[in-house]
Amino acid sequence: MATKASRAAARLMLAPAVILLLGWMLVPLTMTVIFSFKRYLPMRGGDLGWVGFENYARFVNSSAFWPAVQSTLIIVGGVLLITVVLGVVLAILLDQPMWGQGIVRILVIAPFFVMPTVSALVWKNMFMDPVNGLFAHLWRFFGATPVSWLSEASMSSIILIVSWQWLPFATLILLTAIQSLDSEQLEAAEMDGAPPLSRFFHITLPHLARAITIVVLIQTIFLLAVFAEIFVTTQGAFGTRTLTYLIFQRVLESQNVGLGSAGGVYAIILANILALFLMRIVGKNLDR
């Protein structure tokens, strides 16, 4: 049992890391909140004083605000649906014995380590280019007219690009969960005559519930801040402007850091609402 002296020593050793972490989080957050109540134009006069909630009102009353929130939620929901469903399928397949299993797993996980900018450039130029892209050549091979993906199916294209990058993460987490499943349960169900689909829905899927909720929670936090893929491909056009990209545009257009800071506070509020909702789901699954 730890003594009071050992616990005090542990707290003392952890204190620098905790203070550094809190400073890393609280200082930028505090500055964002402060600037959101100011008219701060770095290129046109600097700090012009306090304006109260004017920045918040301007940002939320913008005609682009709610469409940006809607686009953000559509991208988050679409990517989560694709990565969770395909992640479960890939995890089950990768758990089966096969030749070169280790190499296959590395190849499946590899896209997660590609930078978002590079990933978006590859998809934009090598796959979705309407003239020289791989998809265009496939369309011509089958006698169809190539599709200009980033303008005619822009939202689907962004979801596809982001899903490709996050699918390995979901697969890795779900594969780890599947490997912890007691094989005796599946063998007993098979001996009792349970078909594969029944074994999946009654044994495998309930076992993956915790892993799925963790995947959804972690990915949602990062997907709310998707920016590079949109900047490289559509630059917010064709209905792909998310809340993060709208903040970026507003700061560039108005050169008003206060207006962008107000948008950042709205983004924080949205992220916390989703996080609280997802944490309730995670808590329920973890308590089972």
Task: Please describe what this structure looks like.
The protein is mainly alpha-helical and 288 residues long. It has a domain at 73-241 and 267-286: Orthogonal Bundle (MetI-like fold). 74% of the residues lie in helices and 3% in strands. It has helices spanning 4-36, 54-60, 65-94, 101-109, 116-127, 134-141, 149-152, 154-179, 183-191, 196-207, 209-223, 228-233, 243-254, 257-286, and strands spanning 38-41, 46-50. It has a two-stranded antiparallel ribbon. β1 and β2 form a beta hairpin. The longest helix has 33 residues, at 4-36. The model has no long low-confidence stretch (mean pLDDT 82).
List the helices and strands and how they pair.
Elements: H1 4-36, E1 38-41, E2 46-50, H2 54-60, H3 65-94, H4 101-109, H5 116-127, H6 134-141, H7 149-152, H8 154-179, H9 183-191, H10 196-207, H11 209-223, H12 228-233, H13 243-254, H14 257-286
Antiparallel strand pairs: 1-2
Helix pairs in contact: 1-14, 2-14, 3-8, 3-11, 3-13, 8-11, 9-10, 11-14, 13-14
Key words describing this protein structure:
288 residues; mainly alpha; MetI-like fold; two-stranded antiparallel ribbon; 14 helices; 3% strand; globular
